[in-house]
# Entry
Amino acid sequence: MISKTKKAKFKTQALNLKSKIDKKESNREGFKRGLLKAAEIDHRIVALSAGLKSSLRLSEFEKKYPDRFFELGVAEQNMIGIAAGLALTGLVPFACSFACFSPTLTFGQIRQSVCESAANVKIVGSHGGVMTGADGISHQALEDIALMRTLPEMTVIVPADSLEAEAATLAAAKINSPVYLRLTRPETPILTQGQFEIGKAQILRQGTDLTIIGCGPILFEALKAAEILGKKGISVEVINCSTIKPIDQATVITSARKTGRVLTIEDHSIFGGLGSAVAEVLGQNQPTKMKIMGMESFAQSARNFNQLIEKYRLDSYNILKECLIFFRKN
# Structure
């Protein structure tokens, strides 16, 4: 265990890293920019909203392309069916809602109408994970990545920041297959340079002793922990695995072979998400000691998401603790 004195020292060190990252932005804003750029390039792109136009940052799209925007109200399952129909006529629909509604409530329609037909539908689920914060348990999707991973034809993307969300949206628009794009609600630090390629992970920090693989904005917490571990003599490699499916097997295997220890972190259930995807890769190709960090229960409401990630041990301090325990045991 780490004493209270050491915890206070850790938080001071973590703040030093936090101060280096000045710009924060919700990755929904990156999605908005990406969608507008994609629509300018490709006239086939249309946007569908399930009564959440403002939350999904679609107002500007509606204003600029009123004949390519469809407000369907609180009818998410109907939205997916319509999106599939539009796709099968040659359009490229982006069907947008909260992740707790789509894909969680629309899984049957996605399976039958989208994936079985290989319909070119882009499903955008915002407000993923406990980072949704004050909206509470009913709006905190913790199962969506697991659901979408199971479907043939489906690509699953979880951007780390707004720049990556913008690039991922453009990339999703270009491929002729179903895509699930997971977004989060709050403003979070910019961690990437906005470079994105479907199926390609990014090494955010080089290391030799332990690998942390994460997805989404929670990666900032991993980077804070990695920096402090470096000062303790433990060299940590941090990988942004923003494409969950198809996962970048080569990068995962190469890093695991180098460090011999892998810890995964995600704002999602520990069952069926990124950790499971990494375990499948390593179990079949490079058996490696692993620790999966994520949500093990439903969450609750709080004033802000920082309270929740600390309560459910997804913050940098608890990542640090788990890394130290994992490293010393192995």
Observations:
- The CA atoms of residues 203 and 239 lie 4 Å apart.
- The chain has two domains: 4-22+193-329, 25-189.
- The first strand starts at residue 24 and ends at 25.
- The domain at 25-189 is CATH 3.40.50.970 (Rossmann fold).
